[in-house]
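Fig. S4 source data, part A: sequence.
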Amino acid sequence: MLFIFQYKSNRIKLNIFNYLLNMKKIGLSILLFLTGTSVYSESVYELAQVNCKKAATIASLAQTYRQLGIKASEATEKLMSVTVKMTNQDAREREEKQIFSIVQDAYTVSVYSDHSMKKQTISDFEERHYLECSQSFQNAIDNRNK
């Protein structure tokens, strides 16, 4: 009886996790669309914010796939599926390069069995990529102002 309860509990958690993944994937699609059609009047910091949020979302999804035990090739394929409809070839190539880089990084991280450790690992990975992105933008802004 305990086994059946644990099985159903794990199945419910997996269904919730899959739902959240789909929501993040939809959010990523919207972010990619918006960054591909952004107005040039945006400030550099607004552009940085949008791009860094997108990088954080990609990082979160990549690390989630990692913690679920999904193969790197499958994770890459799932994340790349949102770039298919991008019409701007340069923007598409930049997005694909970023996805490959983040997935490679995600798969250097250990997989944890404890749910709270998985959540913390995903959150930390997402935050690290957001901060790396924002630092990169800040460096570019600083160098441009010299």
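Fig. S4 source data, part B ends here. The longest helix spans residues 2-36.
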